[in-house]
Each structure stands twice: as structure tokens, then as C-alpha cells.
Amino acid sequence: MIYEIALLPVRKEYIVQFRRAFSEVAPLLSRAKGYGGHMLAQGIETPELFNLIVRWQSLEDHTPDFEASEDHQVFMMDLEEYFSEEPTVYHIEETAFTTGEHDDHNSTFDMAMLGLRRLRALNSYPLNMQARWH
Question: I need a surface site. Which of 19, 52, 55, 127 has the fewest CB within 10 A?
Fold first, then answer.
């Protein structure tokens, strides 16, 4: 597993529109071969800088496979008007997080994705079923 980290500089006046556009094109990313989840996080100190973190089975699944696809072309075309400059993209290997006291063999990203899957599953149950889980 690897992570793609894309630093997306968005023009301040288009942050809301960018978020909306991203939610519309995210399914293109989600259906890519080797896709393992993603997170779009807005900067705290610099709210116009978004971090897109995508988990891929392999580097090849991202580049060249996804980057050469028509889905990637549409994905970028629908977002590029909001960028203040060219995004920066790099890749890192997956590794376990450590807390200093003991090693955590479940990455934060994995745990966040598991929680999201559970929440989605819970929200797909009828209302009376949801009450049993609370």
C-alpha cells in the first residue's frame, strides 16, 4: 500500500465551490483500480490549502493507471479552475503510526476509513434498526 498526497492550493474566494466540485468528482476517484480510500482535509493555518490523501494498492495503480485514464482527465478538468497554482503531488509508503509509548499497528487513516464504513452501514439501516446501536 502507498499513499498519494496532493497539496491543492485553492483560491480563497472559491473554497465553497471547490468543496462542492470535489464531492461531485470523488466517485471517479473511488472507482479507480487499486483505490483504497481517500481523505480531503482543509488546512487550519492555511484554509486555502487542501490535502488530498489517497490510499492505493500500488504506485502503478495511481501512476500511470489512474493518471492516464479518462476519469482522471475529467476529475482534474472539473477542479483545475479553483486552483491558485499547480498542485504538488508525492507518494509515501504505508507505515504504522507510533504513539511513543507503544506501537499502533492500525494507521489513523485505516481507523478513520473503518469508522466511515461503519457509519455508512449504520445510516443504511432503517431508522428502527439505528436505535438498537445507540
Answer: 127
**Same domain, residue pair 26 and 80:** yes
Q: What is the pLDDT of residues 68-114, one digit of tens each?
A: 999 999 999 999 999 999 999 999 998 877 777 655 555 655 655 55
- Residue 93's Cβ-side half-sphere holds a number of Cα atoms within 13 Å equal to 2
Task: State which residues form the domain around 133.
Answer: 99-134
Q: Are residues 106 and 74 in the same domain?
A: no
107 and 71 within one domain: no
User: Is residue 33 domain-shared with residue 7, that is, in the same domain?
Assistant: yes
CB atoms within 10 A of CB 104: 12
Please, are residues 18 and 42 in contact by the beta-carbon 8 Å criterion?
no
Residues 47-71 have pLDDT tens digits of 999 999 999 999 999 988 898 999 9
Query: CA-CA distance, 132 to 134, in Å (whole number)?
Result: 6
